[in-house]
Amino acid sequence: MIEIDGTRWDKDRLYKLVEERLGGRLFLVVSNREPYIHTLSDGKLVCHRPVSGLTEALDPVMRASKGRWIAYGSGDGDRQAVDAHNRVAVPPEKPEYSLRRVWLTDEEVRGFYLGFSNEALWPLCHVASTAPVFRDSDWEHYKRANRIFAEAVLDEIGDKEAVVLVQDYHFALLSRLLKEQKPDLTVGQFWHIPWPAYDIFRTCPWPEEILDGLLGNDLLGFHIRPFCLNFMESAKLGLETRLDMERSAVIRRGRPTIVEPFPISVDFDAIHRQASTEEVERKMAALRRELDLEGKCLGIGMDRVDYTKGIPHRLQALDRFFEDNPRYRGKVVFVQAGMPSRTEIDSYRYIGQRIEDLMTGLNRKYATDSWQPVVPMTRQLSPDELTALRRLADFCIVSSLHDGMNLVAKEYIASRTEEDGVLLLSRFTGAAVELPEALLINPFATADFAGKIKQAIEMPLEEQQRRMKAMQRTVAENNIYRWGAAIVSRLMSLAGG
Predict the structure, then answer these.
(1) 269: closest CA among 6, 79, 10?
(2) pLDDT tens per residue, range 304-326
(3) Does residue 5 lie in a domain region?
(4) Alpha helix (H) residue ranges in 309-445
(5) β-strands 242-244, 249-252 pairing
(6) Where are the alpha helices (DSSP H) in 435-479?
(7) Which residues contact 380 (CB under 8 A, 6 or more apart)?
(8) 115/74 Cα distance (integer angstroms)
(9) Claim to verify: residue 248 and residue 297 sit in the same structural domain
């Protein structure tokens, strides 16, 4: 693996690295979600930049390379914003690269995105208690969408020398499709979710096609080493391949795919600066009043509503905590903040209802006229409000049942301007590998989990600060720009740059 030195990386340094290493090649990023979205407001086009760690890391790469970002056009104004070649120059205030939009029908989105990507691959790779749903029709749409994206990438490349960086589990077949047309193309892919053990993965009806597709990459990245090893084992047992453990490579038909970990992160400095602004201070004061926090301890959970996040497990642990520690009733408030997601899928609607029922039950069991233990916060919160909640919270619970990394944990750490607070972190997250100073929990062990909540509330300030300072050093040094530098440098080295 290419070593990126430990000094602080930022946008400017990443920009310069790309300028130096690209060597005249065209650089392309492929993702399902786009870095800029055009919507219609009162008949006028408005351009938004979605909040995304991925965009934060790759935007300076794209600016420096003057490259092309290829993504599905999901905004209701996207078609009006592009030219005859489905391109629009971005960022709108100072265009430096092109966004090429790909169009999918509603049926293709249902089959490719909601169906195979999120009802099959997502639960399969997260080893979730929700069983994957494998439909032949979804698989056909998934294959078709990958072909549509491949055609767009090849059209953008033309006869140029190019480097392609593919993002995530939506495109397991894309790299092989590209290599079949351009064998000398340099292609890398980052898989943002876990990779399961082979015995789990092989329950997919199309394991050979997925493995062969991913082995079209020159470089395949995961968050942590165990996911790399799981993939390599799957490739060894599921296809005719040879492993080169010294190079961390899978050899397929004489061509190697390097498989390495690249732990993703957040922009620590930007979050830390934002947490100190006057606007965040105002939001903190408003939330203190809204939640009646005078003299109380605040805990938070901040998750998209998903069955992988272990939200029911943390609510059950809170129930056990209040049952075992009646003296804390009326003194601890827990805010569960998070928006519903993928509600078109039955399993997501079910988990949303399950969470709502558990919160209602907890409040019915313990609430008084002047206090309720759990406060659901499902409204859309602004970035300043989210940061204000992180700063207010004495402890934060991340109880994922399985997670590639989990950036909520790192965002909490980056927001702690007073270097205090306690992070309760699931052992089953990629972040747990980097953050041993957190209180590590097993979400399934309810009694021990409840005990860790008590430990967090009672932890002396000196110990809080010792742990938090260590975690802040880790997140600050291994920030999102270091991730971008590591994966881009490795890919450029394979391209000969």
Answers:
(1) 10
(2) 899 999 999 999 999 999 999 99
(3) no
(4) 311-324, 346-366, 383-392, 407-415, 431-434
(5) antiparallel
(6) 446-458, 461-477
(7) 339
(8) 17
(9) no
Instruction: Say whether both 74 and 100 belong to one domain.
Output: yes
Confidence grade of residue 497 (pLDDT, cut at 50, 70, 90): low
Assess whether 309 and 429 both reside in one domain.
yes
Report yes or no on 357 lying in a domain.
yes
Taken as a whole, the chain contains a residue count of 497
Give the torsion through C-alpha atoms of 271, 274, 279, 282, to 10 deg.
Answer: 60
Q: With 50 as the cut, is the pLDDT of residue 452 above it?
A: yes
119 plus 222 within the same structural domain: yes
In the predicted model, what is the mean pLDDT of the chain?
Answer: 95
Q: Is residue 3, in this structure, part of any structural domain at all?
A: no
pTM: 0.94
Give the contacts of 376 (CB within 8 A, at least 6 positions apart).
Answer: 336, 356, 359
Q: Are residues 148 and 42 in the same domain?
A: yes
Whose CA is closest to 67, among 95, 100, 27, 22? Answer: 27
Exposed, middle or buried: residue 110 (CB in 10 Å: 0-12, 13-18, 19+)? Answer: middle
Number of domains in the chain: 2
Does residue 353 register a pLDDT over 80? yes
Residue range of the domain that includes 374: 268-477
